[in-house]
Design goal:
The protein is an alpha/beta fold. It is about 45% helix and about 10% strand. It contains 16 helices and eleven strands.
Length: about 350
């Protein structure tokens, strides 16, 4: 048992990474702990020659992961672009864990962020007492990554103000970080690179300048193409979260997961899975990550206030809140779906009643 709520990827999957390191004899870029082939195997899963099993971290296109890994082996940065909930952060974290053995070099983009978060700041007590010096400097994760030759994550790049974003241009193009106060610079060691994530669905999005865009290879992270693929993603992540949070045992039939995923996919696409009925789409993203959250919350309700068996009433309690973000637009779309689709499916009667009674 651990008291850490969310261990880093390199801690959770330390045994898998160690197994890959032990058997990986393929060429690897300088300062990478694994070869590109082994990094891809870590992300997608597989069985090693000694019988060791590597669990899949990402369910989707192998070529997409290969392109991402190959990009990081060059001198170009990687931009993971997609709608919310398409596993951009998840993939970025695991890429850092596999390549650098360290996923902690993270810059979280926000609307009020300053350049210091991307470059460096100062310990003002020492700055006033001693003047500018390396000892008075507070290095950013980007500076640390450059010095150590590691991958750095920049989350929500388009949330960062445009003038602050451009602080990355010199770092990505020249591979140096100037420090004018000390008349010096930090030069990046081999192995340094940047993985940025971004989406264009959130409010307050700042467009990337063309100069910054040119310094990234962009990989678009798609939503799962097939129902069963999304069901498998949700099932796997829910099981992992349940183990990490140490819930009392909860029976979660895969049929309940499939039913929830079907609802999300139909509302997201604006039509039923069979294509026979058009639907209104709510403003909420209804991503795979949201589906995982709904199931996880339902499990908690069932474990602590139910009989340990995930039922329709456990799902309904958080399902409606996940869909109805805008009381006007979303409520109308959800009510229509409830009455025209959920009500008319024979094996969904319990869910219809639970949602109506909520």
């Amino acid at each position: 048992m651990t008291e850490v709520l969310r261990p880093h990827a390199e801690q959770v999957y330390a045994s898998e990474l160690a197994a890959l390191v032990a058997q990986d004899e393929r060429p690897r870029p300088q300062n990478w702990q694994l070869s590109p082939w082994a990094v891809t195997t870590y992300l997608l899963g597989g069985t090693l020659s000694d019988g060791s099993s590597i669990s899949p971290k990402y369910f989707g296109s192998r070529r997409l992961i290969e392109v991402a890994v190959a990009t990081l082996a060059t001198d170009r940065a990687l931009l993971l672009l997609g709608t919310p909930g398409t596993a951009k952060t998840w993939v970025a974290e695991h890429l850092c864990a596999a390549i650098s053995g360290d996923s902690t070099l993270l810059v979280q983009g926000t609307a009020g962020m300053s350049e210091d978060a991307l470059r460096y700041g100062w310990n003002y007590a020492r700055l006033l007492a001693e003047g500018p010096s390396e000892a008075a400097m507070v290095p950013s994760p980007v500076m640390q990554g450059m010095k150590q030759g590691k991958i750095v994550r920049v989350e929500e790049l388009t949330r960062i103000p445009s003038d602050v974003q451009d602080a990355l241009i010199t770092v990505l193009s020249e591979k140096i970080l100037p420090i004018p106060e000390l008349s010096t610079e930090v030069a990046a060691r081999r192995g340094f690179n940047v993985i940025a994530t971004a989406n264009d669905r959130d409010r307050g999005v700042n467009e990337l300048s063309s100069a910054l865009q040119r310094r990234f290879n962009t990989v678009v992270m798609p939503l799962p193409a097939k129902l069963e693929e999304e069901v498998q993603i949700v099932k796997t992540r829910v099981e992992e979260l349940g183990q990490a949070l140490e819930y009392p045992p909860v029976k979660t039939p895969v049929e309940e997961i499939r039913r929830l995923v079907t609802i999300f996919r139909e509302l997201r696409s604006g039509r039923t899975e069979d294509g026979k009925l058009k639907l209104k789409s709510p403003s909420s993203s209804l991503s795979t990550a949201e589906a995982i959250s709904v199931i996880n919350s339902g499990q908690a309700l069932s474990a602590f206030f139910g009989d340990g068996h995930l039922r329709a009433q456990d799902l309904a309690s958080t399902l409606v809140g996940a869909i109805v973000k805008d009381p006007n637009q979303d409520q109308a779309a959800w009510s229509e779906y409830l009455e025209t689709v959920v009500k008319n499916r024979d094996d969904w009667k319990d869910l219809y009643r639970a949602c109506r009674e909520r």
